[in-house]
Amino acid sequence: xxxxxxxxxxxxxxxxxxxxxxxxxxxxxxxxxxxxxxxxxxxxxxxxxxxxxxxxxxxxxxxxxxxxxxxxxxxxxxxxxxxxxxxxxxxxxxxxxxxxxxxxxxxxxxxxxxxxxxxxxxxxxxxxxxxxxxxxxxxxxxxxxxxxxxxxxxxxxxxxxxxxxxxxxxxxxxxxxxxxxxxxxxxxxxxxxxxxxxxxxxxxxxxxxxxxxxxxxxxxxxxxxxxxxxxxxx
Length: 234
Known about the structure:
The chain is mainly alpha-helical. It has helices spanning 10-30, 35-50, 58-79, 86-109, 116-143, 160-171, 184-233; strands at residues 148-149, 180-181. The protein is globular, with a radius of gyration of 21 Å.
């Protein structure tokens, strides 16, 4: 009997992340200034990812929902210019992404069976790391307006795609140089992200290959035992 997996369905998460990346680029290029629309799209895209969380994980579902609700409310107050709650919004979205990263990484790395869902999960972790760091950079811009060369200080939603672009360029260690950290603390987070990006790829590949080999060994062992049983019966 096939064992029912309690892992999250990472296809929802992958679709949500890719959708968020594309839509943010699309809005940045064609509809610059639509701050409320972009925030709504971020909330919607991340909300879709919750659909893939296993039904038994009630705590995680409620936690993700609370963080998105907090981000939506604080963002609305900020855009209505009632009170500036930009940091609350950014931290809520950052904790959402970090929580997703933690649960996804645990399911991908600690497994005895490599399925298509696990491989999709490993890609999701990489995308989550890049997005998480983009919010870390946006938080730094709120705290230190001159934190980066190439990014002007303005409402964080206007800098969202620039921060995402810089984060993934750093994560992949491409480093075009059009955006660069100007202060020591941002520089610290930049080289930490570069290190994490390189180590994650190495560890992920090693982990998946090791699990795959172990999976193949078990499969061959089961086939051998089956053949032996048939020979004994013969």
